[in-house]
């Protein structure tokens, strides 16, 4: 695999000035990728809500309901380990359209009223697998489509939009279920996904294959071995996955800590994420993002140390808001990861990063839940947050200088 990197075209500190959201949206291809990704996020939110409602109605099991809504994230790891090389080894536009079509077909299949629950869970895993490959392909295209210096702004805009889409999607799903059945909600999700497919077909042009080797498990494994063999990339992935995942575990304990105020705390966290992405992605340039990256990673976890003291909920809401802004540390880390990656593996590297980050969110929730079984929710939040801080501090000496 070629060893040239993409530093000069993406995020070099001496490169072009940051690119604004409006400038990005004036580009036809970026606008198409952005719109299709937003439609996919909305479709996924509606489909997850519909499946969770259906499973809760049929089984009454909180565990199965949670798995039905979030279990697809674990299938993303399988995609990262087996076939993520298709993100670079096939025509990216054609690959994205095929994967998008498979996702739409899966959502349409979920709309069948008589489908057994076992088949629905199997579809959930298959769709999670396809979605992980689609994410890698889409992000690989994104790195080629955005102008020089615009990658962080592009990811920031997408993060802000996806966060808002998730909040609005769950609210809309709850409203629609007053008038529609879960099966009809699946139909609406399939319609949104189909619209996203049409947007890609109409706006994104085809690009050349990035690698000469045939994509498949062997090519994926070889590229992953090369990815993790590089010390810089290992440290960056560790910082992208573990501190974030542990803090998501803290959030997973809000219901146990304060059942009546959990919604307030979750809303504060979401607001902080939106604020952080807007500030870091839009107002800071590449050099400033790098300068504040470590402080942002500390901000992500340090406010959660207050939970052991059981202060008033208003104080905790402010703390969670500040911590949410710390999630913006992913932007400079993603820039540096892309700089350190071979140009021929743009899609696979980003697909692996995304899949690992999602998987660690599940791991963080499991770790936090296990600690809470022994210590209680408040102390567990503090312990898990302290572990996130420790990972951030211990990894700093190993970070690349550039």
N- to C-terminal distance: 23 Å
Overall structural class, as computed from helix and strand content, comes to mainly alpha
From the spread of the alpha carbons, the general shape counts as: globular
Poorly predicted ranges (pLDDT <50, ≥5 residues)? Answer: 1-17
Q: Over all CA atoms, what is the radius of gyration?
A: 20 Å
Number of strands: 0
Q: How would you describe the oligomerization state of the chains in this entry?
A: single chain
Q: Tell me about the largest β-sheet.
A: none
Strand content: under 5%
Q: Helix proportion of residues, in percent?
A: over 70%
N to C succession of SSEs: HHHHHHHHHHHHHHHHHHH
| Secondary structure tally, helices | 19
Quote the average pLDDT.
81
């Amino acid at each position: 695999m070629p060893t040239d990197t993409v530093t000069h075209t993406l995020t070099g500190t001496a490169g072009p000035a940051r690119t604004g959201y409006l400038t990005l949206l004036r580009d036809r291809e970026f606008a198409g990728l952005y719109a299709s990704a937003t439609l996919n996020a909305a479709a996924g939110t509606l489909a997850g809500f519909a499946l969770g409602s259906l499973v809760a109605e049929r089984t009454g099991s909180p565990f199965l309901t949670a798995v039905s809504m979030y279990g697809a994230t674990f299938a993303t790891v399988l995609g990262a380990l087996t076939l993520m090389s298709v993100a670079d080894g096939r025509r990216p536009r054609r690959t994205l359209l095929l994967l998008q079509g498979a996702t739409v077909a899966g959502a349409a299949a979920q709309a069948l009223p008589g489908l057994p629950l076992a088949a629905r869970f199997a579809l959930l895993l298959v769709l999670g697998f396809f979605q992980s490959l689609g994410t890698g392909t889409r992000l690989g295209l994104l790195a080629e489509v955005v102008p020089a210096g615009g990658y962080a702004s592009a990811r920031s805009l997408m993060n802000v939009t996806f966060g808002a889409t998730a909040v609005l999607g769950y609210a809309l799903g709850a409203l629609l279920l007053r008038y529609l059945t879960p099966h009809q909600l699946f139909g609406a999700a399939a319609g949104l996904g189909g619209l996203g497919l049409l947007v890609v077909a109409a706006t994104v042009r085809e690009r050349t294959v990035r690698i000469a080797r045939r994509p498949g498990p062997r090519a994926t494994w070889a590229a992953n071995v090369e990815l993790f063999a590089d010390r810089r990339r290992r440290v960056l992935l560790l910082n992208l996955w573990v501190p974030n995942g542990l803090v998501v575990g803290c959030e997973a304990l809000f219901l146990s800590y304060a059942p009546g105020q959990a919604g307030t705390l979750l809303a504060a966290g979401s607001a902080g994420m939106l604020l952080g992405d807007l500030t870091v992605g839009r107002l800071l340039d590449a050099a400033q993002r790098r300068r504040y990256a470590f402080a942002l990673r500390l901000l992500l976890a340090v406010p959660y140390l207050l939970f052991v003291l059981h202060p008033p909920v208003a104080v905790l809401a402010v703390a969670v808001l500040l911590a949410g802004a710390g999630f913006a540390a992913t932007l400079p880390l993603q820039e540096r990861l892309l700089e350190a990656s071979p140009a021929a593996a743009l899609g696979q590297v980003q697909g692996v990063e995304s899949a690992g980050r999602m998987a660690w969110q599940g791991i963080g929730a499991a770790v936090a839940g296990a600690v809470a079984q022994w210590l209680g929710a408040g102390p567990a939040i503090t312990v898990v947050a302290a572990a996130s801080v420790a990972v951030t501090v211990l990894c700093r000496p190993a970070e690349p200088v550039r």
